[in-house]
Amino acid sequence: xxxxxxxxxxxxxxxxxxxxxxxxxxxxxxxxxxxxxxxxxxxxxxxxxxxxxxxxxxxxxxxxxxxxxxxxxxxxxxxxxxxxxxxxxxxxxxxxxxxxxxxxxxxxxxxxxxxxxxxxxxxxxxxxxxxxxxxxxxxxxxxxxxxxxxxxxxxxxxxxxxxxxxxxxxxxxxxxxxxxxxxxxxxxxxxxxxxxxxxxxxxxxxxxxxxxxxxxxxxxxxxxxxxxxxxxxxxxxxxxxxxxxxxxxxxxxxxxxxxxxxxxxxxxxxxxxxxxxxxxxxxxxxxxxxxxxxxxxxxxxxxxxxxxxxxxxxxxxxxxxxxxxxxxxxxxxxxxxxxxxxxxxxxxxxxxxxxxxxxxxxxxxxxxxxxxxxxxxxxxxxxxxxxxxxxx
Length: 392
Hints:
The protein contains 15 helices and seven strands.
């Protein structure tokens, strides 16, 4: 009798497990199908007259910690935040000098920050290595934490070009990927300086070290911890959609998230990847791949909840606003008028003569280092009465 009872219990447990796996698979498949439908839908189709909620009553939020991930469109996002904070006279957490707190192994701490009286900061948006304790120590308790990630294949190609790994390792990208372990320190795939981004860069920036990046359990824990600490993980490939979700989360206006692409490479410096090279990148950056797949699914759940047609309409409004700003502000795109790595052409903007005194045009085209210096001097004037030396 006890054996028969045990068999029934095991059968029930196995059935439940199978049902759970089936439901999980069905949910993942549904999210992937929703993403495909959104991407392939014609932008000009007539929207269905589904019921849409009117703008909800909400309170504008000003406190935000943006973790700036390398080569993920984060400079464009940073420009949005710096313009927003400047417009509303908010306080920024700023580095002592330059435009980074750290971009190697140092995690964010108060020691890396230019101190201002009261420590009543609102926005953190400069490069550092993530530490929740560091963010929490500098920002109000009600701050919203946001970051952005990118498809690991195009991310690695961008890093390899931008950090000139072809010179560092002495081989082109395709050769590196044939046996990437041989280019690191012995018995490790860790690297010195900016080489720390040469494997699973997003995991490294979010706080994992070499040994931790090699442990699937630690990676899984970090992914779920990131999901609990960040209210929004944006996707670079869907930048406008991400900004609409941010606008909704922060109760901002669409004008608050208008943008021009900042720090983008010239097209001639973007290498098209073969399917084989892309697959090798995913294999080498398996941790980044797991991270991206997880948050790509959570992103599309948010879009689905927001409403597919509503999202299309909001994105269309944002892109029309961006076009109007470009017509108002930009004479032409130019190359290498801002800081750029040797041998890599970076685009920026020449402002129209008619927009020289247009504050919005000046700031939306302002490169990161100059904008950071302007904000630092503005806060020095605000707290210490020092004269703001530079014009916009």
